[in-house]
Amino acid sequence: MTAAPPLRVAALLKRYGGVEVVRGVSFEVHAGECFGLLGPNGAGKTTTLRCCLGLTAPDAGTIELAGEPVPSRAREARARVGVVPQFDNLDPDFTVRENLRIFARYFGLPRAIVEARIPALLEDAGLTERADAAIESLSGGMKRRLTIARALVNDPSVLFLDEPTTGLDPQARHVVWERLKRLLAEGRTIVLTTHFMEEAERLCARVAIMDRGEIRALAPPRELIAREIEPTVLEVHGENVREWYEREARALAARAEPAGDTVFCYVADPAPLLASLARRPALQVLHRPANLEDVFLKLTGRDLRD
Length: 306
Hints:
Strand content: 25-35%
Order of helices and strands: EEEHEEHEHHHEHEHEEHEHEEHEH
Low-confidence stretches: none
């Protein structure tokens, strides 16, 4: 008999004040994969996650998390789930070790089990030497690693991570990525929201791109890039770039989009555009392969969301 997926969402609907913020969303997360839920601000990601965790009651649809129906048995489901919130909410009144110990009380775990787990959690987080340090003395990267360690204190099979590397410098971000890769190698399932498309490409087996309460696309990142976007991108900027866009880029590119002082050209064959640009030395060009961010912007637009 095939085991149920760690998370199954079907026809999820949520309204606020008569406005549908989640509109018939359906997806499944496979065991042992990192599943990315991407979208601009206001797309419905946070509401979807809150419904999945039983923190917000849906208006319609069904959710099954860790084999339990949500929201009717959300408490039982959450006992087998770890959550890393967008903003660290560590208790500044307690040390690193004490934060792990106290959080474990929410799950009713025997003290002996908790004390046995804490050394390994600290080691994996690179915080063994800081076990008795105050939270305020930690760097941003250390706090993030501790928050992830705290989410593992109940040995969950499923982890929800809400923008886990926001605000971290590149070095700290890479350390968190390596930790998440190790968790996946252990067989854990991760549900990830992020605004870093590189992060999604590195970690996620599949991504769902949400906008205005709906899923616009769902597939592995490389498959989405191949399916949704031309393979080559030229980013062009410089003096009179708009004039070049009107006169040449629109005709030569499969798709050309001005954004601020830059024109993004999407093509299968860049040769005609490069020849055009060779005649315009005042223009500068970045020539690169298409990526997940290009797909994201195509499906959700370039307009700023508040």
